[in-house]
Specification:
Elements (H helix, E strand, L loop, with lengths): L4 H11 L3 H20 L5 H21 L8 H19 L17 H24 L3 H10 L4 H8 L4 H27 L1
Helix pairs in contact: 1-2, 1-3, 2-3, 2-4, 3-4, 5-8, 6-8, 7-8
């Protein structure tokens, strides 16, 4: 079964951060997901959480530019939500092998694993940033998050010129990299 032009358009709009597209997807598919979750040991809050996670997975896929929907959007959303919910039930030891209302599903394990790996890496990076200390943490945030240039950073942090600020940023980045990879190595052991 192939996706129709309206769904492809909807996904393109979602990739362009169109709030209306996200709202349309929500209106069209949320009730189906809520029914799935509530019929399988979940509640309304669980349904909201799972749907939100599925929307993040879908957004990241369409944003990548390489995503090709080869089924109905409904089927994809259902499959992602079903997989996320089964995983959550398994984590909570409430797994029920015969999930009701199984519809046509598509394989989404790779998408979810990639999404979960990205989340884990972001958490490690956040932890590394918190362990970095000052002024490095503020300097890197000023450059990478606040998009300040080296002249502004030099003035804000009291460096004599932009080159000194740039050297300090490099040292801070190397320190952050070292902390991150030490944590990453410890996590995988």
């Amino acid at each position: 079964m192939r996706t129709d032009t309206n769904e492809k358009d909807l996904l393109q709009r979602l990739a362009q951060n169109d709030d209306e597209a996200a709202e349309v997807i929500y209106k069209q598919h949320y009730n189906m997901v809520q029914t799935l979750i509530m019929n399988n040991n979940g509640n309304a809050d669980d349904a909201k959480d799972i749907f939100q996670e599925a929307m993040i997975v879908l957004y990241e896929k369409v944003k990548s530019g390489s995503f090709e929907l080869n089924c109905l959007l409904k089927t994809y959303v259902y499959s992602v939500c079903r997989r996320l919910w089964l995983k959550r039930l398994n984590q909570l030891q409430r797994f029920s092998p015969d999930v009701e209302n199984i519809e046509e599903t598509v394989p989404v394990e790779e998408d979810l694993e990639l999404h979960e790996q990205k989340n884990a890496d972001f958490l490690l990076m956040e932890k590394a940033m918190n362990n970095l200390g000052e002024p490095c943490k503020s300097l890197l945030e000023a450059y990478y998050l606040q998009k300040k240039n080296m002249v502004e950073i030099a003035g804000s942090f009291g460096y004599t010129n932009a080159d000194n600020a740039k050297n300090q940023k490099y040292k801070c980045l190397m320190r952050l990299k070292k902390i991150f990879f030490e944590q990453y190595k410890n996590k995988s052991e």
